[in-house]
Amino acid sequence: MRTRDPRGTIAEPGDADSYDVAVIGTGLGGLTTAAILARSGKRVFAAERHDRVGGYAHSFRRGPYLFDAAVHLVGGCENGGLIDLLLESVGVRDRCEFADVNPCYEAHFPGFSLSAPSGLDDLIETYSHAFPTQGDGIATFLRECSSIRSETRGMLSSDRASGGDSLSEFPSLQRYRRRTVSQVLDPLVTDQRARAALTTLWPYVGLPPQRLSFLYWASMLMSYIEDGAYYCKGTFQTLASALADAVRESGGTVALRSPVREVTTDASGVSGIILENGERIATRTVVSNADAQQTVQQLVGPEHFSSRFRRSLRRMKPSLSALVAYIATDLPRDRLPQAHETFYFDTWDHQASYDASAAGRPSWYTLTIPTAVDPGLAPAGESLLVFTTLLPFDAVSNWRDAKADYTDRITAAIDERIPGLSSRVKVMEVGTPKTMRRYTSNYDGAIYGWELSPSQTGPGRPAVDPPLPGLYLAGHWTRPGGGVYGVVTSGVMAARAILGHETDEALWNSLRRA
């Protein structure tokens, strides 16, 4: 008997392709889950609406220039770190070459600059030298960050990771779970300038220290400082494509230009997905790397979730989006900043910088020069630069009309920071929050999923296995949080939950046997 679903798609009950798992969206979280499951022997179907995999990790070409869309750095790429271990475990480690980025970043404030090295002891020494009266507090704070990083790794790799909220076995996580960065830092470091310099990297997680989760901040910072900061040569698209290769080479399918219309259900829970073209994929396990609200409200339907779960999502606050300028220049390299990653602030008050962005008038920027570590992204003698700042989607009523004004602002900032650059620009393209939304379908182009405040990290985020049988989440809308390291971790957690492994060690061992 032929049946018609409510949206008009004709389907035979027996005519759907059958898979063990369907993954919606191929951001790095979804790709991580898909690659692990495929390597573990599951038949995987990964659906991607875009024409390439990667989500915010995708790249694009403009003539001879190859740009990363959003990702600049990641930790854990060598010596058994998370990314290194993942690629090795799914059989594609040889596809990615990572360039060590050291110093990790440069910071510029009014009348002050600092170059921050990788390595905990070196970082403590650098900051203590810059602020000699604050040395003891700086060392205490950074070593506490290291302790948090260690406990976080232990918790995420244990059987507490996917759904359990208990932190009793991790005393530092328990003590700081509701603390902001400022609540931990301010009593230890009394000099405002030292505090601002120590928290230079706050834009990487989208909130100022006064509102940012200390647990998430500490884990993020130490992923770069202790594990090393790395750039993926050939752009981070190479990393995403390697994971997609792992899916295909293990017998899975990665379908591009294949948006998902619906997640179907029956009395037992998830029963499959329907693509926009009407193709049905039958499966009892679906992993959504898509926006959590879209997953619930549009793909599945809110009636399939408890009122408590729906209320918890409504209370969550998304992060800001971003304004990004992609620039190619033939300005001589010695007239550009030498660091891969440089932060420019016009005030020592990070809350004021965030407020300026939230009001649609950003006064600070990060400058990334990927050709500093990967010259092959541009022709010889030329460089790529990426200017980034945070902005809300609703900063203007019409981004098409406002884009020219923001482009002028960026050009003015370029002239101020790097004299002579604007006259030597070969290519300049500006991406707005509307651009971010168009390429990812994230709510208002949010670049970190939910905000990374203390109440919205770890257990404050939806678990990877929400209350609908067969549905799992991956990416920055679920645990533990945003950023490359966070979304890859979410993908590992989702794969573990599906495969039934209690610890990361059990998962990695099973992949080695596979």
Structure description:
Mean pLDDT is 93; it is low at 1-15 and 161-165. The longest helix is centred in the N-terminal third of the chain and has 22 residues, at 135-156. The strands form six sheets. A seven-stranded mixed beta sheet has the order 11-10-19-20-21-18-22. The protein has a five-stranded parallel beta sheet with strand order 13-5-4-17-23. The chain has a four-stranded mixed beta sheet with strand order 3-16-15-14, covered by helices on one side. The protein is α/β, with parallel strands linked by helices. The protein is built from 16 helices and 23 strands. Helix content is 34%, strand content 19%. The chain has helices spanning 28-39, 82-89, 120-130, 135-156, 171-176, 181-185, 192-198, 214-225, 237-249, 292-300, 307-315, 350-358, 399-417, 433-440, 484-499, 504-513, and strands at 3-4, 10-11, 17-18, 21-24, 44-47, 59-62, 65-68, 74-75, 98-100, 105-109, 112-116, 229-232, 253-255, 260-266, 269-275, 280-282, 286-288, 321-329, 341-344, 365-368, 383-391, 425-431, 471-473. It folds into three domains: 3-99 and 233-316 and 451-513, 3-Layer(bba) Sandwich (FAD/NAD(P)-binding domain), CATH 3.50.50; 117-226, no CATH class; 320-447, 2-Layer Sandwich (Guanine Nucleotide Dissociation Inhibitor, domain 2).
